[in-house]
Structure formats: C-alpha cells, structure tokens
Amino acid sequence: xxxxxxxxxxxxxxxxxxxxxxxxxxxxxxxxxxxxxxxxxxxxxxxxxxxxxxxxxxxxxxxxxxxxxxxxxxxxxxxxxxxxxxxxxxxxxxxxxxxxxxxxxxxxxxxxxxxxxxxxxxxxxxxxxxxxxxxxxxxxxxxxxxxxxxxxxxxxxxxxxxxxxxxxxxxxxxxxxxxxxxxxxxxxxxxxxxxxxxxxxxxxxxxxxxxxxxxxxxxxxxxxxxxxxxxxxxxxxxxxxxxxxxxxxxxxxxxxxxxxxxxxxxxxxxxxxxxxxxxxxxxxxxxxxxxxxxxxxxxxxxxxxxxxxxxxxxxxxxxxxxxxxxxxxxxxxxxxxxxxxxxxxxxxxxxxxxxxxxxxxxxxxxxxxxxxxxxxxxxxxxxxxxxxxxxxxxxxxxxxxxxxxxxxxxxxxxxxxxxxxxxxxxxxxxxxxxxxxxxxxxxxxxxxxxxxxxxxxxxxxxxxxxxxxxxxxxxxxxxxxxxxxxxxxxxxxxxxxxxxxxxxxxxx
Length: 508
Known about the structure:
The protein is an alpha+beta fold.
C-alpha cells in the first residue's frame, strides 16, 4: 500500500538560500526544455511550400522519421545544441549501456544528455543533484504523455508563482530518527543530496519496514515541506460481499448543510472562506497588497500574509472534512455518493444578446454561488470518503444525482415546485419531509442494493420494500430526526408559509 506523508522542514539560512536558487534554476531548465520541444513540434508541422531551413539531424520529414524509426516529432531542435554530431550514422545513434540499449531518438533522452553537459559547463546546474534534474525532465515527459492521451492540455510554461517543488529519486534521501525533544516538539533529521542535512518535524514516525520511494521538496506559504511516498507492507482489506453488508448510507452534498445523511443527521458547513469574519480579513489583507508598490519587498511581505491566510483556511477545511468523512463512513458498510459534475456547475452563464448588445445574464449573482462551491470542496470531500471506505474494506458507490432532491419518495413525482429551500412537499400526494434528507435517501436507493439489515430497520416512506438503516443514536433511544420527519414544528412552519394550504386546495 502506498501512502504520502508530509513533514515540515527546518532549514538554516544558507539552506534556505540554496533551496530558493534551486527552484529558479529548475524552473528555467524546464521552460527551456519545453521551448525546445515546442519549436520542434512547430518545425515538423511546417507547411509544404515553406523552405527547408534545417539540414538532416535538425529537421526530419515524415518519410525520414519512418525510415530511421524515430517517430518522435520532438527531437529536431534539440540536436542543434551538439548533443549528437550530424555526421553519425544510424547505427552510431544507439549507445549500448550494459544489457539495455539506450536510443537517443527522443526529446527526453537528448535533453538528458544535454543536461549532463550543462552540469559541467555551468556552476548553477552543477550545484543541483543530477537525479533532481532528471526528474525535472521526467515530469515534463509525464505532462506531454497526458497531452498526447487527451487527458490534459498542452504543457504550460511555469512562473515563479507556479513552480514550487522538485523531486528526488528513490533511495537518494536518508532519514535519521532522533530520540530527543526540542521544546514541545519531536524532530528527526533528513539528508537531501546537494542541500545537506536538516531537521524536520516528525509528526508521524516512519515505520522501520516502510520502503521510502520518492521525496518531494515543496515551498508553501508557511515554510518548506517534504512529501514522502512510502510503500507500506499493509494490505488493504477486501470489501465484504454486498449480501453480507449491514446497510447503506446515502450522502447528499450541499452548501447550507455540508452533508445530509440518509439516517436524518446533518453535518454543518462552517464556511471557512466565505464567512463574514474571514471575508473581511481577506479583503483587508488583499487591499494592503494592492496599495504597495509593485516589485517592492513590502508588497512581497503583504502577499505572503495573504497566502498564509489561504493556507490556514485550507488546513481547517481539510481537518473538518476528514472528521466528517470518518463519522459518515462508520455508519454503514456501503456509502452512496452523488457523482457531481462540479466543473459544469461552476461554468459561466451563457451570454444574452439583444439588438447587438450584451444583456445581464446573472453571472454576477452566480459568482457568489461559485465561491461557495469552491469553499465546500465537494470533490475533496468525496475523495476522502472513498479513501476511508477503501481503507476500511467498505463499498463506495457513485450514483447519478439528477432530480434527487425534487423526486417524491412516496409517489415518484418530479417537479421543481416540490421543493422550496429545505422544505419538501409533494404537489401530487402531499408527502412532507426535509428536502436534503429525502435526497440522501433517494441517493441510497439509487445504489441498487437490495438487502434487509439484521439490525433495527425502519421504512423510509419510499417504494415498498425499501429500508434505511437507523443510526446507533436512534437505536440507543436518543432523539433522531429520521424517526419523526413530519414533526409538529415542521408542519406548523409549512402551514404558516401557506404552502400546505395550497396543496390541500389542490388535492381537494
């Protein structure tokens, strides 16, 4: 089982300067390699009537690629830098290394060879560990692989604000466990080749039988961290057969309520980034950045304060979601989630044109909704729930979310008029329940699992034969919302709003 653990580093002043210099050099190295490949792509896809500007070895026709077996359109300008002399024949282009043949007919191989020469020519490249430079090109290769497979866009050039990490190969970094407490914290040491040995906050000790794979060093707003990829000997448990499972827990994600469970419980949404206090603090700090002179040290300091606030918000949200996910996964052996199209939900409104002019389309109002969706982070929450289910040997099923909160569980009638906020009253049969709770139970039914639990079960008001598993609190006799969804308080609130009277007149 592979896991990734993060630890905070404590480098000294000299190591801080060296880490920053490495990021600058590695960013230029990646952008230069990307520029060479982009020029190669444009060169090999030139128009037929354009003059041939490069000799063989710097430009390859399609027939030449087939003849020489190159088949890679990202090699030509790389050869211009003298990596491979033009006078070499096809057989000489193959370099035998042990029992494996290394063919210099790809951009990655050519640029790797060129990088080795750069370490001998430039002191800035000589300072960086060779494995880090090779991994820098490997990450660019992975970006191009995703582009060729239509999984992502064309690799972008990195700016200083978007290039914040580099990676060591497996076996390069050495970890030393210290049994000494410095103040209230426990620290250990790690040796990073080319940088030296430094302390890190040992918040979670690495197991002795764990295999350390890659180590990624990254810069964040509040300091430097290492991300360690570990191979643990633990094996994930096999999920139970569905016929042996005790129940299914349907989860409905929302904004007013972060999670609505099929047992009637709710998880509140703290709105970490969109509450009034945080919004005011963010507005003040951002205003201080805008009032500083561009390029000044004070503007950089103010920008770091804004970045630190964003990171604090992310940490609070992450911890809250892990706790909420753990509570929901413990309730049943099967968890049913909505397969939400979050990217489509945050899409811009279509423009409206009238008499050649653009009219208001509601985008300004939708901007607040998009911020709220970004704040709740449904995608991250669903990923945490799926991981906890996998780790605990439980099933996690994603179901279509269409009309889950507008469908009546009593008669199956679907209409927008059935729901008004968090209130649900069916126009056809008059069924009354909480909209989010009903949606979560519909999501649980859409999982398609047919079984009868051996624990206490209670009809959910849906189709005949469908049951929802009561929570432990309901079994122990505590107050539970699922036991009485049509309470007197809800009925009085509905009658005061006039909705129930309209339904009575409609049915009468």
